[in-house]
């Protein structure tokens, strides 16, 4: 402004029509410059309109602070919260925080096209909203035709895909050819069918998204557990090896050997019977072992032959069912030689139908006592 005035003042002394005309033009430019609105206050907009915190807005504003008005951002927000998608304020805040560049998007050329792409693969509006919540940073850029097409053919349904990316959203970005398909081939070489791999990925989706060298090392550790590849337990062996580092696995083997007082060969047999016992914490192993040997009255050999029993919850399963068994045995209602393991492993509905409901008249308080025991309140 000052620089402009330096050019204007000297012209004031001239009466030439040309100079007067030039002077009026310069003054008009100066007035327009002084009255024009400042650049779009992106940070304030993000806080007041999008629901971001001041700290989040400061980071996000860099992505579209070049905008001179909120017109495009307003159109984007109207579309996201409108009937086409129906995002909540919290959804919008999450989406903009993770991907502020979405406010620069074209509604017609990008966002609307993306919604149509999701729907073409069987996604409902509610399922698209779920994807936004699970992978907000990917909604604008996710390769729908290539990747969603592959995952839908692999998992079979949007619900299953969403359930798995909640556990591992790397599925959204992983390279299909170099990572995902390479891992699938490694698993198939070990004898797993596509259906097997599908099932395994529900509990351990990282098997498909980690580097193939990592997957190869996991499969080698699973082989070292001694579980035959053609057995149903080999799938559990792979999931266990994937969930434990080599150091942790070695430590768990030592804990089992020490807690149960068994040999290396006996530990190997235990693991082959149920590899997932290695996923049990050391503290839980110790507490369950002491309960089984001191309260239930079984010995180490009994446990070694039924290692799955070590994986059940002491508070919600073992102790409550043991209470019911003892109560029924004291009344002579069931034989004393009934297998504790059988009573523990049956489902909740079956257990109640066999050992609670038939005795409601003889022991009217048994059902309520069992319910209390399952909540950690064992009757005395």
UniProtKB/TrEMBL annotation:
Keyword Transcription attributed: yes
Gene3D superfamilies: Transcription termination factor 3, mitochondrial (1.25.70.10)
GO molecular function: nucleic acid binding
Biological processes, Gene Ontology terms: DNA-templated transcription termination
Keywords in alphabetical order: Transcription, Transcription regulation, Transcription termination, Transit peptide
Xref: InterPro entries: MTERF, MTERF_sf
SMART domains: Mterf (SM00733)
Entry's family note: Belongs to the mTERF family.
Protein name: Uncharacterized protein
Organism: Panicum virgatum
